[in-house]
Write a structure and sequence with these properties.
Layout lengths: L1 H10 L1 H5 L14 E2 L15 E3 L2 E3 L16 E8 L17 E5 L2 E6 L3 E5 L4 H15 L1 E4 L9 E5 L9 E5 L2 E6 L2 E9 L7 E3 L12 E4 L4 H16 L5 E11 L7 H10 L4 E5 L2 E5 L2 E6 L2 E12 L4 H13 L1 H18 L3 E5 L5 E4 L3 E12 L7 H8 L7 E2 L1 H11 L10 E6 L4 E5 L3 E5 L2 E10 L5 H18 L2
Parallel strand pairs: 4-8
Antiparallel strand pairs: 1-13, 2-3, 3-13, 4-12, 5-6, 5-16, 6-11, 7-10, 9-10, 9-24, 11-12, 14-15, 15-23, 15-27, 16-17, 17-26, 18-19, 18-25, 19-22, 20-22, 21-22, 24-25, 26-27
Helix pairs in contact: 4-10, 5-10
The protein binds the ligand C=C(O[C@H]1C=CC=C(C(=O)O)[C@@H]1O)C(=O)O.
Length: 480
Amino acid sequence: MREADRERDDAAEDDDAADGPDDGRALDGHCAMMPGVPGGAEAGSECQTAVGRLVRVTTGAPSSDPAGAAAPLVARTTEVAASTVEALVDLLPAADPVAWLRHGDGIVGWGRAAEVRTAGAGRFAEADARWTEMVGHAVVRDKVRLPGTGLVCFGSFAFADDPGDSVLVVPEVVVGRREDRAWVTTITSGGLDHTEHRLLAADPPPEPVDLVVAEGALSPDEWAAVVGDAVARISAGDLEKVVLARDLVATTGEPLDVRWPLRRLASSYPSCWTFHVDGLFGATPEMLVRRERGLVTSRVLAGTIRRTGDDQHDLALAATLARSSKDLEEHEYAVRSVADALAPHCSSMNVPESPFVLHLPNVMHLATDVAGVVHDAAAVSSLELAAALHPSAAVGGTPTAEAVVLIAEIEGMDRGRYAGPVGWMDATGDGEWGIALRSAEVDGATVRLFAGCGIVAGSDPADELAEARAKFVPVLDALR
Ligand SMILES: C=C(O[C@H]1C=CC=C(C(=O)O)[C@@H]1O)C(=O)O
């Protein structure tokens, strides 16, 4: 069906030629036409429905069907000048923003052309099946054909099978940027979009007020005791590694506008993937799986040391991390779990023998980039690959089954979508799925932050507590 989608796409090429030049330009807050987007302005029409920087200026557009996939989706991607989208995150409106950003590139979106909610152990398979069905019925006009163009969905999946509440969102508008190219995709359900769209500046988000941060499910002492329990069980031979997480609960005086922390995270952690899907936001350094045109890559992290702010000292600490047998052991479990899960899908793979040290502003990690050539891209989507990899030993443990049972038994909280796959996928099944780390879930004026640590036989509860504190820093700072 994904091939059929491409064929329709090809057939639409001639159509597109009649739509005018694809030379969108910066509009600096003025209501002006975005060339290349279908449908001319009707005489006397005016700006009506503001949806972020793209506003409808004519009526008669088909209404979207956020409840599901009853009507076929129609996606149209148009190239615009890269100067129109210098800071993607600044385009986001307050209502319903989604984001996936790194080093200024990525995709952002808003509105809901469709949404799929799944739960339980079948959450990935059901979401993937619904997406395949939507794609199969969709009409896609995409002359740009870069990763992130055409019909795309954003997704965020629960860590655990129970309750497992997960979501796929198909926005009404997606704006993307990759190096010096940029594009706008409009997605409607129920027919061709005959509206004209204009780029407008989004209002900046308000600064959070009256931030109060409290402990979450467990106090620091209680959590350290749980870590001690895990170390005892590992020493007794029950399992080799388990990742234990804790939470903090922040409240703000007014409901949080998630665009505030998103802007902060994107600028402070440019090498991480800054994301937001349906209330879950963060800046993760860990790529569970990216599939692009037959190539698959994964950035595996495990093994952490805190930065001090003194560059010379941090370099010495990085060398210590690279030699730490406790951290190398923790890392090895994580790499093996990813390589083993990817192997059945790859005709060749490259798994480096030793990790490098990834420097982030708050911590340093042992990191390994695994790469492979997939042989089953026509049959297996990037989301299915993410499902096969989840939970890797970077967020679950080794052996996986025992670790997941122990997490449910002793961690003392529901992780929700923290440490689950988060990212996006296109109509061909290519996409990027990160692990939702350094993240938080926002619900009105309440923000629940998460951080976890890999526990092995040599772990010290006090050190793990300090490491978890360091991992809260990105989101905590972004709320201020
Ligand atoms: C579980 C988290 O980090 C994982 C990723 C990198 C390093 C980790 C560690 O050293 O423990 C964790 O496995 C988290 O940030 O919440």
